[in-house]
Amino acid sequence: MDHKGVFARKPVADIIASEGGAFKALPKVLGPFSIVAMGVGAIIGAGIFVLTGTAAALYAGPALTISFVLAAVACGLVGLCYAELSTLLPVQGSTYTYTYATLGELAAWMIGWDLILEYSMGVGAVACGWSAYFNSLLVQMGLGLPPDLLSATGERIVRADGSAGTAIADVPAAVIVLVITGLLIGGTRESVKLNNAMVVVKLVVVLAFVLIGAAHVNTANWQPYIPPNTGEFGQFGISGVLRGASIVFFAYIGFDAVSNCAQEARQPQRDMPIGILGSLALSTVLYIAVAAVLTGLVPYPKLNVADPVVEGARAIGLPWLSLLIEVGALLGLTTVILVLLYGQSRIFATIANDGLLPPVFARIHPRFGTPWISQLIIGIGVAIVAATMPIDTLSELVGAGTLFAFVLVCIAVIYLRRAEPNTPRPFRTPWVPWLPLGGILACLGLLAGLGVYTWVRVGLWIAVGLVIYFAYGRFQSRLRAK
């Protein structure tokens, strides 16, 4: 195999001319409101309802608000790059397609493989949070599930009678993934309508918590604002703020999932920038507000629980608000699962359509107009992940995968400005190359905040991806066959 084959690029003109090729059968049903709702549906979820507590209690303390600002700055820089590429190449595949047009086939495969990790672990982490809120709601009705069925396989648990044991699997997490998978197979239009309704309810719940909670904040809980470092990197202090930013960065991955909507958008050149940047801006404001109110209501060491926002509502002393938040959290986390499963299936199908995975994964259902086999296989795989892996491991893996993808998106903008200067760009990222370079540096800084074991796991995933490519993908590539 020669280097030209490994680094063969898919020409931008060919990508634009094909307008999705095999995916022309996908119906164009998404307008700007639906795309913003898809973004908010993916972003406002685990970051508010699950990770705020973990990141504040273990890493950043009240300075979690700074962590959210740092993550938002990095996402804003990258979001502008996504906006340009999603209008330049309004087709399926997101970062995978952009990388294929810039750095070549091997890099595209690796980022596609990386995105599979990102979305799978992302859905798994969110499903774990969904399970905790679901059981909390059941407990209020006297129907709580046994702890054996509520934690990752092998995790230590304490049963109601005080006896210790190990969990079998997180059953509700697996069930919700399979239910959403069935919904997505049934059609994009129906899934979007449900997502829009749930997003509206979710925003009402989040705003209710912020407005009511702000009146009950105890400012003493914000002291010290940046807790002193414990002597270990990432545990409070400045390094803890950075580590917290790396963790809550997971909360922002929804806006890059929006780029997978391009093939089904009615007017992608107009609607995609609105969807990406609008959802990112709205979600950032809400994240910072919730983090400030939550750490003002509850001392940060007490927030390392599965349902931290409900803990904040309990501190206010309004039972009806706790119930409202639990319902809103369930809906919010459901929309995140829906959007991430949607995005992953589209990337999976695009990779298969290029020949780097078996073509069966690109097959479109003749009635529902969805990549149903891809969606089904992903749903089953992610359900197993959600049932067996702990949420902290899942969230760090998502952060690493997302940051790698974002770095390549910034590189793609710089490269295509030089390689394809005359190609029409309905949306142009300002201050190229300086703004994309800022995005690259911000992402690399957040990568530095991840733990050693996360790097080991990501390295193993990359090694498996290389084996698959050199054993299968390089021989089946449609681009190289031409």
From TrEMBL:
It comes from Reyranella soli. Keywords: Membrane, Transmembrane, Transmembrane helix, Transport. It is a multi-pass membrane protein. It is found in: Membrane. Pfam families: AA_permease_2. Its main location: membrane. The chain crosses the membrane at residues 29-51, 63-85, 97-116, 123-143, 163-185, 197-216, 236-255, 276-300, 320-342, 372-391, 397-417, 429-448, 454-472. PANTHER family: CATIONIC AMINO ACID TRANSPORTER 4 (PTHR43243:SF4), INNER MEMBRANE TRANSPORTER YGJI-RELATED (PTHR43243). One of its GO terms (molecular function) is amino acid transmembrane transporter activity. One of its GO terms (cellular component) is membrane. This is Amino acid transporter. Signal peptide: none annotated.
